[in-house]
## 1
Amino acid sequence: MDTLQDRIFQALADVKDPEIPDVSLIEMGMVHRVLVNDHDVTVQLMPTFVGCPALELIKKQTMDRLQQIDKKNRIHVEFVFDPPWTSDRITPDGHQKLKQFGIAPPQKSLQQLPSCPYCNQEDGEILNLFGPTACRAIYYCRGCKQPFEGMKVV
Amino acid sequence: MADDKLLLGHRDSEWLGCCPDIEGDVAFSSIAQDEVGHATFYYQLLHQLGEDDPDRLAFGRDASKWRNCMLVERENDDWTYSITRHLFFDQFDQIRLQAMCTSSYEPLQHGVKKMIREEYYHLLHMKTWFKQLGRAGGVATQKLQQAIEKLWPDVNGMFSFAGIEEDLLRFELIQLTPTEMRVKWEAEMKALFQQANMSWPGEFPQLKHDGRKGEHSAALKTLLLTMGEVYQSEPSAKW
């Protein structure tokens, strides 16, 4: 028999990043912990960026999903900055799915450039440190000669 | 800190669709989003400590109540001015954030540690452009020189703490005095000026008006009218 904690973590795997719908909050490494206390369930999430505009949506989607599996307890979703979310929290599954979605997963250091998510060539260049969302940058692949997005190292 | 960030973020957002190239446009929009996000973080902390609602602080406050430094309220002027202004501020901000990484107020400390990772990219972007403009020669370097001269009288204003520095230090909210911050800023910037082949403009002029004491230019009033236009049309509306 699964515990409530187990069921919550399974449900959180269904909540996707609104800007990258292939990747769940767990795969993004955004779930800090789940606290169960009496009739209160508190999910602590770590924002990827302080000003991420998707936070309210993520909160709502998390509440909605958890209320489906747990009708007895009060559900709370809060954002915490301690510990800070860092790009190395993205799980191996998360890396795989980012790549499938066409976004290069983050490297270990800022000096390393990501390999192209389309053709795997490593010889890329930075086009723009800033991309369509706060957490992404834009690169250019000299192999397949097209731009691609990559997750920033933070 | 909240006021600095919100105004700078708003000025950044004014560049949307107007930058010299599309990369610059994307950069300023992304940076604007970060800065406004940081401002929101600070306003929420203030609200938890008993200050007014964040929306009212941002959109419903008279210019004399704003505590930002003058540098961030100035009009954007040309792109070179905006980049140089951002560089000057970001370098100051990095020093100020580092000085709060061991702050006795934990919620502040946690937020600061997160923001510092994001600000890294802003500073890198501004430094890169400063060096490129400085080394380019011709119109680019001329404009950079003009931007530096126009900004120089506002530099000192970033380091004003309007008389509360002793309390901030005594309660260990921040670890550096304004003078220590300015010394660090000067060292970092002197090295960058050298790399960009730009000459150091010399001493910082004395402040005529101190934004941190609520002394502001007409530019702030215009900015607040623009920024608060929708909110002011119906302050009781729920969003």
## 2
Amino acid sequence: MMRYLLPLFAFMVLAAFLLVGLTLNPRQVPSPLIDKPAPKFQLNHLHEPDKVMSSDENLGKVWMLNVWASWCVACRDEHPLLVQLAKSGIVPIYGLNYKDERNTALQWLKRYGDPYAISIVDLDGKVGIDYGVYGVPETYVIDKKGIIKHKQIGPVTVDSLEKTILPLIKELQQQT
Amino acid sequence: MAYGLTDVMKVLLLVFLSLLIPLSGWTKEAIPVAEDPVIEKRMLALTMDLRCLVCQNEPISDSRAEFSNDIRREIREQIKANKTDEEIIQFLVDRYGDFILYNPPMKPTTIFLWFGPVALFVIALIALIVHLKRRRVQIEEVTLSHEQLEQAEALLNEEKKGKNV
């Protein structure tokens, strides 16, 4: 009896592994930056190009960095959610305008709403490389000490917001 | 003679120099495309073993994706800044993780990846040896002792006698 059960058992273990593999998303590459300090940057504002924002300005508060561009189609999907989140005042969202053209970016914000406390411009994608950006939109949750706590690859959804991002932000805001 | 030899040469020189003008303009434009062949060669060698994260089954060296363009540009700049290959790879791994490497490094999390196939092979080999040994024991058990042979012979003879009657 064992003779026949053993191969069956081995096959079932293999099948279970393959089944789990099917549900994984190969596009979601785990970021090595989680629990590491957010890369520092000094970037010009989108609205007032002569103003410079430094990443250090946000030390002491929990904030979100949303990488977006007017050429990015998926950004349009998540945008209403971000606008809603910004209105709720739970967490400030900063926009990293990634490899975009200034005028089209400004028009885009006028058309779809502007959820960003400040939008900053990463024209050549250098800061994007520092943050390990490879597919826009991407969203980072950064804590009071400037540590990256979460990276959302692809558009923010109601599900990811309610199950992961918002509980995490609440938890981080309670830390001193 | 209205023109002296020097005048002719002057005109020729002028014509010749004016021919060079579009040529110099052309070379200036071509520089960013051709790049420095030494840097380009090193960059290609590096990017051949790097995965394009957007088009995951393509190395960065072959990919036309915007992401790969950026990484290639970044690597060129770092080569110009005299960074070593190891430093450049580390720079990318720090930002994109081991996933960007086609050759995964040996670490606790990748031990199974590296040695799993060898371990499975060894286990299968041991199972095969054990199985073969057991079978040999079984076959030897079938061989009969001297008394058993005689007994069998006697039985066969008896049967023959019975049939003959």
